[in-house]
Amino acid sequence: MTDVTLTTTPASEPARSKSLLEIDERTKKRNAAETRFKFYGIGAIGIGVFFLVALLVSILSNGLSAFTQTSISLPVPLVQSEIEAAEKSIVKTSKYRDIIGAVLIEKLKTAGVSTDMDSKKLLQIMSSGAPGALREFVLANPDAIGTTVPFDFLTSSRVDGYFKGRVTRAALAEDKNLDSAHLDIVDQLKEQGSVTSGFNWQFIFGSDASDSRPEQAGIGVAMVGSFYMMLVVLCLALPIGVAASIYLEEFAPKNRLTDVIEVNISNLAAVPSIVFGILGLAAFIQFAHLPQSAPLVGGLVLTLMTLPTIIISTRASLQSVPPSIRDAALGIGASKMQSVFHHVLPLAMPGILTGTIIGLAQALGETAPLLLIGMVGFIASEYPSGVFEGFLSPNSAMPAQIYEWAKRADPAFYERAWGGIIILLLFLMTMNIVAIILRRRFERRW
Amino acid sequence: MSEVSGAIRTADEFEPNKATAMENTKISADKVQVYYGDTHAIKDVSINIRAQTVTAFIGPSGCGKSTFLRCLNRMNDTIDICRVEGRIAIDDEDIYDPKVDPVQLRAKVGMVFQKPNPFPKSIYDNVSYGPRIHGLVRRKSELDDIVASSLQKAGLWEEVKDRLDSPGTGLSGGQQQRLCIARAIAVSPEVILMDEPCSALDPIATAKVEELIDELRENYTIVIVTHSMQQAARVSQRTAFFHLGNLVEVGDTQDIFTNPRDKRTQDYITGRFG
Ligand SMILES: Nc1ncnc2c1ncn2[C@@H]1O[C@H](COP(=O)(O)OP(=O)(O)O)[C@@H](O)[C@H]1O
Ligand SMILES: [Mg+2]
User: Fold this and answer.
1) Is B106 on the interface with A (CB under 8 A)?
2) Distance CA A44, CA A39 (A)
3) What is the pLDDT, as a whole number, of residue A3?
4) Calpha distance A104→A388 (Å, rounded)
């Protein structure tokens, strides 16, 4: 800066114009600064992209295996007398286990696989949920008794992990449940096509399972819980948020009180979600005596959390509607309300919808407040039987279920936690894409 | 100067009515004060605005022309800090009376703004919106008639009759402004306020709108704010000169432009014309 003034001012003669072909110092400096800034920018984006890719790669590499599951197919003869005996006994599933054990030994014999293990030991290659699954089938299909039904049983999570490369023979040395002999058997069965791996529908549609049978655990019921919570959030937060914003933005007088309200709404948006959780516990469960772990309560808590987001984005989009539109409506004698509802609101709609969807997406991924109101994993083992139960019967939610799985010791659960994250991310991505599409579609020029 | 003499001719035709001018008052303002917070924007303005006449408000920027115009249909109500004192009456009814609903008032006193501001809807919807909210029509055919006649009066019908469903925002600036005039006319107002309606338009579009204003004079009382003195001379019969919130002078347009009584008016006019 200074050297430029020095060179031009002392000579009072009219400044000679410099050649445009040579670049002066100042311009060089400015260009250099610009180039440097571009590199910073590219660097920053590069770092961001790197972490994103690393995140996606680790999620996919850890989680994709949750979407396949090894199963073993056995033809089970459902003999009338055996089933009657089983149904009469006290521990019914243990009798069913005997049936399956016999079938398995038979299978190995015909397959020419030799083993000295007894049926109980052998059965450890199968999920401990297998007898229960068989019994359920029998109860649901009494007509099938007397026939031989080809059955696909889940293998145990260790066997499943062996085929996915998670469990190694070396690691089995310390495992009480399974040893190398088991793996030799499943390897031979696999060669013969009796052990196959396929898409894990149970993971998507099933419910959480107990600690000892991760192979049965699924996220479906938690998904339903999340769905009912989102319904609650949408039905409450959208109308309340939009009404509050419209009132504050268009009707409320600008005074101390509205200023205070405004500041508080902004503050609420920054309140940690766990605070909303404890508030929900105190207000909805302890005071209002709503049922614990119910999606209704979860939805109410998440509504509180989402409201500020929706209000802030709605107000921003109302503000972005040009005042000339309001003038135009008022100028031909529309009432304030008509001008807002006929003209301003439709123009603000894309922004409102985007804000709402982003708020919903936030709520969908929120975990902490749900844990406080008891929406942890392994709460519901069945789908709710109706809409009413959907709202009120105890359930979990996707992120809480993921958290629950990540806590458990068995690596098979860990795999499912990652798988659950993939599903959650798919939902979030879908919602964001919908938000973008809505924005594009409804955006109008004025 | 030729435009000015043209305006004088128009004013001459108007001359016969001059005798009845006094009983012809449509809007009368008496000692109006307007404050924006602590700013005293309009000081003690009293003026009578005649029916079936174009009255132009002229004056330097920021002198309060728009502010006073917006008092006439209470658009200033929408500005929180704005306060109006004094009496403004239309047909001898005080429009600031607590019993008056501004919504009804604005149906009677339409407004056209500086920047064309059609709704981002179809041309048809733009014009039909007013009649619909005021319940002026029962049947769709009546609405069609109002839309057509409003667009005809606004001189836009020939240009848009084949594309009433296309968006109003897709028209050219001048067409948009005439659409806004049609929209104002559609609710059958008695007074039309225009705040620099041509300032965003090119000369050809301006000429069209001016022509239109001259035609509308037959049926409506028109008040137009303009920063162009040529325009005031071309379209108006009465002119009011504002300066720093004061109404300095009001009179027949030809008088104001040929022998202004006040020094400030003279300076302003000669400054621009010289
Ligand atoms: N909304 C407002 N808030 C505060 N002051 C305003 C507002 N509108 C106009 N004013 C003030 O009132 C005075 C008159 O403005 P305006 O009526 O717009 O003048 P003109 O239309 O003659 O250019 C100006 O000093 C302006 O700063
Ligand atoms: Mg103005």
Assistant:
1) yes
2) 8
3) 46
4) 43
Cβ of A324 within 8 Å of Cβ of B187? The answer is: no
- Are the CB atoms for B65 and B59 separated by under 8 Å? yes
Q: Is residue A15 scored above 70 in pLDDT? A: no
Give the pLDDT confidence of A266-297 residue by residue, as tens digits.
999 889 999 999 999 999 999 999 988 899 99
Q: Choose one of B39, B67, B68 to mutate for the ligand 1 pocket test, by most ligand atoms within 8 angstroms of C-beta.
A: B67
CB contact under 8 Å between B106 and A446, yes or no, is no
Distance, in Å, from the CA atom of A427 to the CA atom of A432, rounded to the nearest integer, reads: 9
Calculate helix-pair angle for A92-111, A180-192, nearest 10 degrees: 70
Q: Are B243 and B266 in contact (CB under 8 A)?
A: no
CA-to-CA separations, A163 to A183, A185, A313, in angstroms, rounded: 10, 13, 49
ipTM: 0.86
Instruction: Please report the domains of chain A, with CATH numbers, ordered by start residue.
Output: 70-199 (no CATH), 220-442 (1.10.3720.10)
B43 and B246 in contact (C-beta within 8 Å)?
A: yes
Q: Who among B80, B107, B117 is closest to A324 (CB)?
A: B117
Q: How far is the CA of B68 from the centre of ligand 1 (A)?
A: 10
Higher-confidence residue of A21 and B12: namely A21
The verdict on a CB contact (< 8 Å) between B120 and A347 is yes
Which amino acid, residue B267? D
Which residues crowd ion ligand 2, with CB under 5 Å?
B 66
